[in-house]
Write a structure and sequence with these properties.
Keywords: Signal. The chain is an alpha/beta fold and 284 residues long. The protein is built from 11 helices and 13 strands. It has 2 domains: 139 residues, Periplasmic binding protein-like II (D-Maltodextrin-Binding Protein, domain 2, 3-Layer(aba) Sandwich), CATH 3.40.190.10; 92 residues, D-Maltodextrin-Binding Protein, domain 2.
């Protein structure tokens, strides 16, 4: 009898260890079971947690007073207002934008998130609010105007971006120098640690306009993409709210007004709002 009890106790211990190991495996692989908050829970908390960039002017950045500003921030402010809560901005890097949703650290990601088939496997995207493609910026005295000119040179990219994926897939012979943060990547270009830097054309264009001596020699690579808000996979309630709100904002011409306030001061005549902005979620 005592032996039987010992056997059952041993089996129980084994099953417990297996369960712990399984949980650890799911956690280490990034597959968190943390469930997204409902809209009711968001309203009860009084805050909408939004993942944004803190170093990506003019899309998402922290100003000299410590306040978040930019094109994405204007949308975040409005979404929170229409939910009847305050926005709580959470700074993210390009590589962990999806993970912050998966682990329920944020409710929405607005960190200039380009829609791709691979990312659709991890998160659910709402309607788009911007159009974008890949660009390359380099020093004017050694400007790169063709991808072939990058062969034998070092291209700076930020981890977790469409530029990183694009060059790894289509130009594996081009040496990539990778950084976690955009600010570090741009600093590497300024320091001469690489020959050029690639990310969304909207970003490199804005950066080149503010940093004399640099030029966007390649303005568009690959197929044009869209940028959209993202929520945790399966969070249909919040997704439906965002889509409805984006359609309503389109009727107000919200995103063109957002462009004039946040992007036009940087781009000036170098860009056309209609080439970048998507109103009401309808790409034209």
């Amino acid at each position: 009898m005592k032996l039987t009890k010992k056997i059952f106790a041993l089996l129980a211990l084994v099953f417990a260890l297996v369960a712990v190991t399984a949980c650890s495996s799911n956690s280490s692989s990034g597959k968190s079971t943390a469930k997204a908050r409902t809209i009711e829970e968001i309203k009860k908390s009084g805050e909408l947690r939004i993942a944004v960039f803190a170093d990506k002017k003019p899309f998402g950045y922290v100003d000299n007073k410590g306040a978040y500003q930019g094109y994405d921030i204007e949308l975040g402010n409005r979404l929170a207002k229409d939910l009847g809560v305050k926005p709580k901005y959470v700074s993210v890097d390009a590589a962990n934008r999806a993970e912050f949703l998966i682990s329920n650290k944020v409710d929405i990601t607005l960190a200039n998130f380009t829609v791709t088939d691979e990312r659709k496997k991890q998160v659910d995207f709402a309607l788009p609010y911007m159009k974008v493609s890949i660009g390359v910026v380099s020093p004017k005295d050694k400007v790169i105007k063709d991808v072939k000119e990058l062969e034998g040179k070092t291209l700076i990219v930020t981890k977790g971006t469409t530029a990183e994926t694009y060059f790894e897939k289509n130009y594996p012979n081009i040496k990539l120098q990778k950084y976690d943060q955009y600010s570090d990547a741009y600093q590497a270009l300024l320091d001469g640690r690489g020959d050029a830097f690639s990310t969304d054309n909207t970003e490199v264009l804005a950066w080149a306009l503010e940093n004399k001596g640099y030029e966007v020699g390649i303005t568009s690579l690959g197929d044009p993409d869209t940028i959209a808000p993202a929520v945790q996979k399966g969070n249909k309630e919040l997704l439906d709210f965002i889509n409805k709100d984006i359609k309503k904002l389109g009727e107000e011409n919200f995103f063109h007004k957002d462009y004039e306030k946040t992007l036009h001061p940087t781009y000036g005549d170098a860009a056309n709002a209609d080439d970048l902005v998507v109103e009401g979620g309808e790409v034209k």
